[in-house]
Structure formats: C-alpha cells, structure tokens
C-alpha cells in the first residue's frame, strides 16, 4: 500500500472578528487523494476555515501550506492557480450563458487569473479551454445539456454545473460547501454518487462541508469536527461517531 502524502496543512490557523474568535488555532492535515469532511454545529467556524484556506479571508494568525508551499495571504485567483478550487452556490453561474459557455469562461479565468478577454490569444490556447470544458461537463454528466441556458437547468443540474465550474481550473484539491443543500432525496443521492465518481475518476482530494451526517459517514475517509472554532475531533467516521465530545457538541450527549 502506497503511503499517502499531505496536500494541505494548516498550522495554528486563527481568525478573529473583533472580540469573536471564529477559527481558533486549527492544526489540520489533509492527505492527498482522500475525501475529508469538516463538520460542526452552526457557527462552528467551518465556512470561515474554508475561506481562510481559499484566500477569501486573511488569517489573524497561523499559516496555510498547499503541496509544500506557503499560500498564506495569497489572493484567491493565485490560490486557484496553485491547484485549489471551491464550489460556490449557484450564484457563481451566469444564468443567461449556456452550460458550456459557463465552464469555458471559468477555465479561461483560471488560466489568466481573472475574467478578462484577450482577443490576441493563441488559437491553441482557446482549443485547450474548449477541451477542458468538455472533459468537466462529461465528468458531471452535463455534456448533453451543453447548449442549454444555465437558467433553464433543474436545481440539481445547476449544482452539477457549479461543480463543473469549480473543476474547470483543474484543481488538485476541491472544497465543496454544502453540495446537497436544498436538494430532494433523489437529487442528493445523485450528487453523492457524482462526488464519489469525480473523486475516483479525476483523482482529486476533496474537502467537504455537509450537514447531512448520513452523507458524511458514507463518503468521508476522515472527519474533522469543529466546535466554537476549535477542532475537537479528527478521526475516521467510526471513531467520530462514537466520540463523546462530538455527541455532546451536537446533541447534548445523544449518540449520532
């Protein structure tokens, strides 16, 4: 069995907003190729942690290393170009553009660092962007809908498009924040299948924030539990499920 190597490491990562400490001295290591879940009660600091790693927020203290390089304080587009991407909510979709145009735009932006057109760009570069868009749309089973305006997609397919947009930068590490939020049970099952398929076929490392514990226990290799900005557990799903501190944080001691 090949030994896994770490792709993401945070050291003492802390974020304060005035007198509120949203993320408190978090040391976390994510191994290459794993699906890592981050869970915790509302207000635990999960989204703030992701925003620190992806450059949307600057840490008050601590550092972030990706693939051995210090990325602390870099701009979000610089972090994307390093190989880190985040799937946002459907607000990241351009509704009046086609499915294919959305993903091509994201691939172009990832290559250049911002949404900016260069009419002198080489034709082979644009061909590469088109190839990336096709690959990612096929990966999320939306290639047959490539000519559909994004606004006309069903909700579940909009979330698939949002994942394809995140994949367009060809990341090594993908953050997914509540990928099944607002979905029907059927859409949720399909999305979980998609996450597993993408991880398997593209060889990604995935860090997943999700409230649905059934999903977490199904697909996560390891789970980090945040409570009031602090990591209170970081272990396998079975170990986390039986952890009394986790049970107390979630349900006042009732077993998960």
Offer a quick outline of the entry.
This protein has 256 residues and is α/β, with parallel strands linked by helices. It is 38% helix and 25% strand.
Topology (elements, then pairings):
Blueprint lengths: L5 E12 L2 E12 L3 E5 L6 H8 L7 E6 L2 E2 L5 H7 L1 E4 L11 H14 L10 H17 L15 H13 L5 E5 L7 H18 L2 E5 L3 H7 L2 E6 L2 E6 L1 H5 L2 H8 L5
Parallel strand pairs: 3-8, 3-9, 6-7, 7-8
Antiparallel strand pairs: 1-2, 1-4, 4-5, 9-10
Helix pairs in contact: 3-4, 3-5, 4-5
Features:
six-stranded mixed beta sheet, four-stranded antiparallel beta sheet, alpha/beta
Structure notes:
By secondary structure, the protein is an alpha/beta fold. Helix content is 38%, strand content 25%. It has a six-stranded mixed beta sheet, with helices on both faces. It is globular, with a radius of gyration of 19 Å.
- Shape field: globular
What's the total count of β strands? 10
Enumerate how many helices there are, as a single number.
Answer: 9
- Helix percentage: 25-40%
Sheet/helix structural class: alpha/beta
For the largest beta-sheet, the strand count, sense and barrel status come to:
6 strands, mixed
What ranges have pLDDT less than 50 throughout 5 or more consecutive residues? 114-124
Strand order of the largest sheet: 6-7-8-3-9-10
Mean pLDDT: 87
What is the string of helix and strand elements? EEEHEEHEHHHEHEHEEHH
- Beta percentage is 15-25%
Please give the alpha-carbon distance between the first and last residues. 32 Å
Rg over CA atoms, rounded to whole Å, is 19 Å
């Amino acid at each position: 069995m090949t030994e896994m190597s770490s792709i993401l490491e945070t050291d003492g990562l802390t974020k304060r907003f005035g007198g509120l400490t949203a993320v408190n001295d978090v040391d976390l290591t994510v191994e290459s190729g794993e699906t890592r879940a981050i869970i915790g009660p509302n207000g635990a600091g999960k989204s703030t942690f992701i925003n620190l790693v992806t450059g949307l927020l600057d840490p008050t203290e601590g550092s972030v290393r990706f693939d051995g390089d210090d990325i602390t304080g870099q701009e979000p587009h610089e972090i994307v170009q390093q190989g880190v991407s985040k799937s946002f909510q459907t607000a990241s979709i351009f509704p009046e553009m086609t499915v294919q145009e959305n993903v091509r735009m994201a691939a172009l932006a990832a290559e250049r660092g911002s949404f900016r057109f260069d009419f002198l760009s080489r034709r082979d570069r644009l061909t590469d962007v088109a190839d990336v868009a096709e690959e990612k749309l096929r990966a999320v089973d939306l290639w047959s809908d490539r000519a559909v305006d994004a606004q006309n997609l069903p909700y579940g397919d909009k979330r698939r498009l949002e994942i394809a947009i995140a994949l367009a930068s060809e990341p090594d590490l993908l953050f997914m924040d509540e990928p099944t939020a607002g979905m029907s049970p059927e859409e949720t099952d399909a999305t979980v299948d998609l996450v597993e398929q993408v991880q398997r076929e593209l060889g990604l490392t995935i860090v997943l924030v999700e409230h649905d514990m059934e999903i977490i226990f199904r697909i996560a290799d390891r789970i980090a539990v945040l409570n009031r900005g602090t990591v209170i557990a970081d272990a396998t799903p079975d170990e986390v499920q039986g952890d009394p501190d986790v049970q107390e944080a979630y349900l006042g001691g009732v077993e998960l």
